[in-house]
Amino acid sequence: MKSYNKYLPVIISVALAIGVVLGGLLNAPNQNHFFSKNSSKNKLNKLIDFIDNEYVDNVNTDSIVNLTVDNILAKLDPHSVYIPPSEQAEVVESMKGDFVGIGVNFYMYNDSVAIIKPVENGPSAKAGIKAGDRILYADKTKLFGRKLPNDSLFSKLKGTVGSEIELTVYRKSERKEIKLIVKRDVIPLKSVDVSLLLKNNTGYIKINRFAETTYGEFKRGLDALKKQGANSLIIDLRDNGGGYMEEAIAVADELLKDKQLIVFTKNKKGNTDKTFATEKGSFESGNVFVLINENSASASEILAGAIQDNDRGTIVGRRSFGKGLVQREMDFDDGSAVRLTIARYYTPTGRSIQKPYNEGNDAYFKESDSRFENGELYEKDSIKVSNSLKFKTKKGKIVYGGGGIVPDVFVPLEVEHGNESSVYLLQSGVVGHFVFEQLDKNRNTFRGLTFQQFMTKMNGTDVYFNSFQKYILKNGLNLKFGKSKSLVKRYVAAEFARQLYGEKYYYEIVLKEDAMVKAVLKSQ
Q1: Which of 165, 396, 461, 496 maximizes the CB count within 10 A of its CB?
Q2: Candidate list 77, 185, 253, 309, residue with the active-site label
Q3: What is the mean pLDDT of the chain?
Q4: How far apart are CA 141 and CA 155, in angstroms?
């Protein structure tokens, strides 16, 4: 019997919660405002009307009229949610794909705004801000030595296109303060992390969510890979909680032939809406592989299901989350919104991959924890599927509904490295903070090194592995990395590369030993 680290469910739950929150937007936001200002009663009445007219199942709304908005939605399904004004603006911005600001990656380090890296060719980079700088003042507003909430901090740095802000910066490497004028501009929020060419003429594209700009980002990456000679494609949807349904459909359309069914939906009235591929696809031939895991949800599952059911490619990894409900976002005048389930979606063979939610929201979101306990993250035979939910593709391949996309090629969690918790920890923001602090001590250690020289340096030392182990223990996580040394060194080196050289170099390091990518390359 396997032993399970006590911190693992916590790490998984946090990662899953983040993915599903971002993945809830399956339909583009409805921009109409249905509600009168400052009328809580009218808001509630309108919400009940939406449930009566649009919700996918029949609900006795009279029995829930007296509940609060949150409690009403909690009675429906796990993905019908109320979004308060304080959160709605951030969600919309994330899914829009850009915002207006100064263009820096930062985090709060010892009560100061520490720059991890300015966005390449962004306003801050053009103004001369460098990695490691601390922003002391934004105009006359003091930013250091205060516990400013993120929304307050962001409001100081954001603004309108072309507006100027004077930043007072402390440059640790030169031990001096500098005043810089930064002209705000549109800053893209990438939903495609990277596109790069691997061996065997295989292209790789990592999609972290499906935002308004995803298809355009994907298409640019795909076109570039084709010019480099890619005739096979890996689409990485691991930990992609979903997003806009239309963007996933547009990506699928690039890969499927004219008139192939991509997805269809059914609402409470039984109306069916089918979406087919068009003749515009630019990668309708050539091998396609889609990588998924237990945190791939919603729009990610629509894309994976379309590829699997049309016998277009191979799904590699572990069973996906299992979200087959479609939401529409409806706005209140106070800036809040309700995201309401209005339909179910089905893959081309007719299967719903929605997992059960009749035992309540807590049990629904904790279902992924049970996958450790029943062993399905380690052995494909441990995946529980129902023969009553068995479907066949046109070529006779058996596929299953009822709780996620079951991969064609199963790749277990990286248990060969020892502690399963290590994998999830290394993919969190913890490594980024550690690396920043290491660089902050002495950036000159890496100054002037080519990437190849950097790799030789990292491969030839255990200094950063040992420091990271101490860092984790010091921060209260009782994780020992002795059996995971090669894994830890790989991710630490990759994060150094990201902060020093850019995102592409992070993936170049990580993917060389990635179990799913290796499974794909081995099959060719």
Answers
A1: 496
A2: 309
A3: 88
A4: 11
- What per-residue confidence (pLDDT) applies to 419? 57
- The 3-state DSSP class for residue 419 equals coil
> Of the listed 43, 323, 355, 489, which one is catalytic?
323
CATH architecture of 192-325+344-414: Alpha-Beta Complex (3.90)
* 86 classed as catalytic: no
- Residue ranges per domain, the chain? 8-96, 99-188, 192-325+344-414, 417-523
Q: Each residue of 452-490: pLDDT tens digit?
A: 999 999 999 999 999 999 999 999 888 888 888 999 999
Helices (H), 55-208: 69-74, 85-96, 123-127, 150-157
Whether the pLDDT of residue 390 is over 60: the answer is yes
DSSP assignment, residue 81?
Answer: E
- pLDDT band of 84, cuts 50, 70, 90: confident
Give the pLDDT mean for 200-211. 96
Q: At what angle do helices 485-501 and 503-511 cross, to 10 degrees?
A: 160
Chain segment 25-36, per-residue pLDDT in tens = 444 444 444 444
DSSP 361-399: HHHHHTHHHHHHHTTTTT-GGG----GGGEEE-TT--EE
Active site residue 309: yes
pLDDT at 12 over 80: no
Q: Alpha-carbon distance 483 to 79, whole Å?
A: 39
How far from the centroid of its chain's Cα atoms is residue 131's Cα? Answer: 25
Under CATH, which number does the domain 99-188 receive?
Answer: 2.30.42.10
**pLDDT greater than 70 at residue 189:** yes
Q: What is the mean pLDDT of residues 286-290?
A: 97
Catalytic annotation on 323?
yes
E strands, 268-408, are: 272-276, 287-292, 314-317, 325-331, 337-346, 390-392, 398-400
- Backbone angles phi and psi of 299, in degrees to 5: -60, -30
Pick the catalytic residue: 124, 298, 300, 421?
Answer: 298
